[in-house]
Write a structure and sequence with these properties.
Helices cover 66% and strands 0% of the residues. The protein has 199 residues and is mostly helical. It has one domain. The chain is built from nine helices and no strands. α1 packs antiparallel against α6, α3 packs antiparallel against α8 and α7 runs parallel beside α9.
Amino acid sequence: MSNENDSSQTDRSITGVLDAWENEVEDGKSNVGSILRATGSRAAGPLLFLPALVMVSPVGAIPGVPIVLSTLIVLVAGQIVIGRESLWLPDFLRKREIPEDKVTSVIDTLRPYAKKTDKFLGRRLTWLTGGAVPRVIAAICILLSILVYPATLVPLAVALPGAAIILLSLGLLTRDGVVVLLGLLLSAAAAAALLYWFL
């Protein structure tokens, strides 16, 4: 599995990831596989960021989608942890359709905010984004994704672990250790809140 230093310059911005996903959907099929194909790399940041972003977007409100996306994150993050060079997904998951109109609507809505956010991210505390850190963060994302399953029983609760995964992976994506730290704090808060609700 390539580390974050192997990702392209386009991969290092939210706008780049959104544009790549839009192009993938327009050129191919709007399905779960398009989320992975859009990343164009094997780096942990973009691979984990896009499915988490979809999870907390209006697309994630479609019944069953949070479960599909959390399963996707578990499978992808697991392969990142073990250092697998090529990603594998079962066909039933890869081919799961996502309404194209909802995808394009979400991308059009997020793009202006993404461009503004991209200006403030990158190259802070970069030691928190390199080395073995992506694998550690991938392991944390597995735990957060598992919490999504019971969280679907509580309205809007999916947003807690989803937002934590977004921050962790966004920190890797943009090589911004400050964002990673915020993600770790939110991860702890999300886990504590969900455990409190269900235990």
